Amino acid sequence: MNKRFANKDTGLIVATDLKTAKARTAYWIMFAFLIIASVVCLFPVVWVFMSAFKDLDEFLSVPPTIIPKTFNIKKLPEVWKLLNFQRYYLNSIWLVIGDCVCAVLFNGMFGYVLSRLKPKGVNLVFTAVFWTMLMPSTTNMIPLFMTFVNFPVIHLNLTDTYLPMWLIAGANAYFTLLFRSAFNNISMTYVEAARMDGCTNAGIFFKIMVPLCMPTVFVVLIFSVQQAWGAFLWPYLVLKDTDMFPISLKLFELKNSGVASDIYFVAILLAIIPPAILYCFFSKYIMGGANVSGGIKG
Questions:
Q1: CA distance 172 to 132
Q2: Contact between residue 75 and residue 262 where contact means Cβ atoms under 8 Å apart
Q3: Do residues 88 and 242 touch, judged by C-beta distance below 8 A?
Q4: Residue 119: is its pLDDT beyond 70?
């Protein structure tokens, strides 16, 4: 057995399994399958990146070229200025910030209530939250849209604002269950010690629970950024002012406007760069963990 596998104690096949020929064969078959799957998933991204720098003649050539003969990097600033992309970037960033704040704050507080405060009827509420994950998203689309057009009690029209997307991000059942699971793994010793020091429930949440669950917070942030940056349906339904369009709606508008294909591919490349960079930066926190056991000694 290869030395690099001698201490392998994680995954479907561990070091003891690799001592047999059958297990080693299964391991390399799975490894080859994952390599092929990775290539298939990465090919569209590589194709967009390569095609974005081609001249229009080469872009439309038959058969197509994978590696461009002409690599015109000046097309990036030219398309950026031509399409006024900074406006749509700022719109998307503003949408992402609101989604991230609402996703962490409201879902985190809801998960804290389900995990630690546990008021009467908490089991019924937890069951209802879980069952909402099994409902098709289309079933609540019309009631939600009607709510945003005429918000109850205050009777405000929330269309042409980012509030509908922010409110939807703050009511995510999956994120709530993630936070609840993370809070369940924190020892009650922390909570009891904080209460003895006179800390309120809000203080316990912000000063203890959230810092000890930072890996979960980063996971929620990553998912929120990806969902908000690529969101299309709800922005398309509630935003009518083109000056408020995020990147996704701008790309849709370009597709229907008959813009040149090479310019459209440059726009796609400009749209996918930020989430790719953010994911590379935050992905290490997913694999991290907060070891909160044994935090209090004696």
A1: 9
A2: yes
A3: no
A4: yes
Q: What 3-state DSSP class applies to 294?
A: coil
Q: For the CA atoms of 122, 127, 133, 138, what is the dihedral angle to 10 degrees? A: -100
- Give the separation between CA 202 and CA 247, rounded to whole angstroms: 36
**25: how many CB neighbours lie within 10 A of its CB?**
10
Kindly state the average pLDDT of the residues 94-108. 94
Coil, strand or helix at 117:
helix
DSSP type of residue 242 = G
- Can you list the alpha helix ranges (DSSP code H) found in the chain? 21-52, 56-59, 75-82, 85-112, 122-132, 141-149, 163-169, 173-184, 188-196, 201-204, 210-212, 214-229, 233-238, 247-257, 261-287
Query: Do 6 and 15 contact (CB within 8 A), yes or no?
Result: yes
- Range among 13-17, 126-130, 132-136, 290-294 rated most confident: 126-130
Q: How far is the C-alpha of 37 from the C-alpha of 179, rounded, in Å?
A: 31
pLDDT at 290 exceeding the cut of 50: no
What is the rounded distance in angstroms from the CA atom of residue 111 to the CA atom of residue 108?
5
Q: Which structure tokens are listed for 128?
A: 């209802």
